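Bench notes, afternoon.
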Amino acid sequence: MNTLSEKSGPAEGRLRVPSTVRIGVSGQRTLVDELQVAMAVRQVLERLDQILRDTPHRYAAITSLSEGSDRLLAGEVLDWPGRGTATDTELRLLLPMEKDEYISECATHASRETCRSLVDRASSVEVILSEGRDRDGACEEIGHTIVRYCDVLVVIWDGKPARTRGGTADMVKYARMVGRTLFWIDLTTGKVTEERHSDGILESFQCLNSFNSETVGEKEIADVCREIYGRFTEKARIFGLDPVVIHPLTETLLPHFSRTVLLTKRYERRYMRAGSLVYALAAAAVATVAIQTLFFPAVPGLLWIEVAEMGAVLFLLIASRVGDWHRKWIDYRFLSERLRTALFLSIFCVRAETPDTAMKPMFSHTPNDWIEVAFTRILETRPLLYCDLTLPFEELKNFILSAWIDDQISSYTTMSGWNRQRHELLSQAGNTLFTLTLVLAAIHAFGHDHIWTADHSGMAAILAALTIIFPAVAGSLGAIRIKREYLHNSERYAHMVRHLSLIGLQIKRVSTIGTLVEALEAADEVTLREQQDWRVVFRFGELETP
């Protein structure tokens, strides 16, 4: 299967997830220095290009095409391709009346011609009629619509109060109230001020760009694709299904899924290993101090070992935060699991449920979550024309049941047992160490005072060292156990096994494609909720100082 060429390099071409940046505008009609404002608009576009430097992106200007600021921004955006890294641009218009009537209301011939040329270049024109409202009210409604619909708002404003209802000052106030990120171009100085608000859109663009910029060997991706495709075709043949059914996935969703799986494993390893090392080094630092003090008091130079251990802890914490290992692990894991579900649902022309932020549980997603954007765009690589619901029903049903539902049940069962085993192992180890510490403390309490005197020699010094080291090690083990949420994960995975087992029984009993699709949609819903719960659990699990 020649899914990808076997060469190393960054995520290229079709594996980079594209993005569309919707740029709204609100500004004053009179521009004293148009060139200065135009240069500021280009500065905004350059800033967005820089954020999305590794991401194929296009700009969509959203405007009511008022004279002055609106038309200037529209023209600058439409003329931008070739100057920056954007691949394309478009103009979307929101008008208070039909376009011909709107053009005819322009005050001068030059204004009408400028307006007409921009209208002709628009990809869409939507007329928003405001019955019972005056002209200012209609403009205010359109302004609010632009603020709500855009990703970033460019404000061209002198900072003074609005002269009319729905003016630029009112739009700035409204944008800040709803949390829209904006770029304020000072009309008098041309200075650009970036205001990030609660919508988190620039952070989302940065996360998407980070995902696109990840370097993954294409041979690695091809190997994973080949391994997964091999499993699928083997199961298809077992149930008498022609593997041609799943072959289109090799050129659409499967490469994206394989790449995301590899990235998930990469950052899980980094985060988990760094976490274990941080707690191990913290315990080692305690042991170093105890051993130097009790056994080698005349060699203070040994304390440089503790300095090195604490330095290593600090290095790991900084590396984890700078590399964003924790956030990338949980985000990539969530995306990979969504893509796993989409692989199977796409065979039935069913679109996997998008983690819509409007329906999210608290904390599972941030506003404008980049994962929702990436997932939606990746799904577009699997067009419905590949779907074929005339395939043999029983063979297809048994394939899906075995390759997806049963495989997930097996995976969750294994993970539940593994997590419970780790929880019990670390709990027992910690309890054992604390018990041993209690025994040593009891020896002291029964009159062996010489253990704590200045004369630390022989067995007494060893016992004293152990009473210091054991609690430190036990504390580190307990911190690892709690941080990894082993017990919580074990219970959640067991819960998933019960739910998917019931859905599996339901699938076995269905006899029509409609009821099968309903069962698969139920499985999609269950897996999405589990993935959201997992993301909530680990979202606040960043590495911290012990």
